[in-house]
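pinned: reference chain
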Amino acid sequence: MGFKSNSTYLCGVPSVCGSDAQNHKSRDPSGFLPGAPDPDPSFHVSSFIPRNQLWQPDLPPPGSLPPTANLPPGLEYLSQLDLIIIHQQVELLGMILGTDTSNKYEIKNSLGQRIYFAVEESICFNRTFCSTLRSCTLSITDNSGREVITVNRPLRCNSCWCPCYLQELEIEAPPGTVVGYVAQKWDPLLPKFAIQNANKEDILKIVGPCATCGCFGDVDFEVKTINEKLTIGKISKYWSGFVNNVFTNADNFGIHVPADLDVTVKAAMIGACFLLDFMFFEHSLAGL
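pinned: its structure tokens
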């Protein structure tokens, strides 16, 4: 489903998802930037990590923005982004031993420069015996090493046959201050989630496809309004090639949202991306 234009969004803030995103099928994240040239068709998503890219003239590097009174410290840079790339790092030890290790993610802007780094904190027992349902904490730090977001995941169920005690994440920004939740909603056919505020009131819905295997292509989870009638963004799991998807657990995601979306909601979207990775793509064969 393509994006639809909408003149207003949360709290009356103007927001329009570009019509280019409707027909854009390239995996080159820079293709979503206004005025960007058409991407090279040979470009592959697994190589979207440029080393020597210059910053956009109107987009200062993360950490260079002055603190804003009404924004959580460390999240000022998110207020400028409409595309957030999440790249899971390959764990060589897990590949060699065939065991689950703590996940690590690089969070980047549309040009591939790292803005945050996320590390999973969990014990070996949970990773071994609870696998993808394990409880854990993900600490997200900026480039100066300051922790700006904490994502807490308790041990919960995950079954379309069990409508109780479903998956949930708690988002803190800064650590110690709860700003939102990601809650799984029961549905017998489709994976559904709600982005909630600190009072656990639904703000947005995330609706995935019936089959999340991808069939050697991207998998899109649409971000919708509460009534699910309007699509305002998406979370995409990028297809990164047969070898990467089968023999490693490293996944690449893109979060496409309106630039004027509240930064705490964007932080919750990052947490939702981690939850989708755990639930649907943690095992390499699930990424197919």
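why pinned: The longest strand covers residues 114-121. The first helix runs from residue 20 to 23.
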